[in-house]
Design a protein that fits this description.
The protein has three helices and nine strands; from the N terminus they run E-E-E-H-E-E-E-H-E-E-E-H. The protein is α+β, with helices and mostly antiparallel strands. Strand 7 and strand 8 form a beta hairpin. It is globular.
């Protein structure tokens, strides 16, 4: 399925009749589901378009903040190791609704990310958190990693 990203060179293999895609962060192959297809495009977008260092990207990990266990799709870290960007990936057929935005908002409050990126691969929503106003504001695009990192 064509997504609203540039074309990237993925390593895909067929195993037992199922397509699997190599994740360059987790260093293994994953079944190509619609959500995984979006996730892999986002990873390459971060690396190739925003210049996020590979070592500062984490994929599908659980974190505990304030006694709550949270599992995120993707996060990037700033130069001091704090979460800079939280990314919520949905399958292309899942519309980004206020419910999706609320789910990402809960993660953001827990993880304290400065930026949030919500995507189904077709529609992208970018948010920046304003700690003084304690609210998110919509932004048109995500700045390159160096600019996000400088303002954190």
């Amino acid at each position: 399925m064509k997504l609203n990203f540039r074309d990237y060179n993925f390593t895909i293999k067929i195993l037992n009749g199922n397509a699997r895609i190599f994740d360059i962060i987790r260093k293994k192959y994953f079944l190509v589901t619609p959500e995984e297809w979006v996730r892999q495009h986002v990873i390459h977008f971060l690396i190739h378009e925003l210049d996020v260092p590979i070592g500062l990207i984490a994929v599908e990990k659980s974190l505990e903040y304030n006694g709550l266990k949270k599992r995120f799709d993707i996060v990037t870290f700033d130069s001091s190791g704090e979460i800079l960007l939280l990314i919520e990936c949905k399958a292309p057929q899942i519309n980004i609704t206020s419910k999706t935005m609320s789910q990402a908002g809960v993660y953001q409050k827990t993880l304290k990310a400065k930026y949030t990126f919500i995507t189904n691969g077709i529609q992208h929503v970018y948010l920046k958190y304003d700690p003084k106003e304690q609210k998110h504001e919509f932004i048109e695009y995500l700045p390159p990693y160096q600019l996000m990192n400088q303002s954190s």
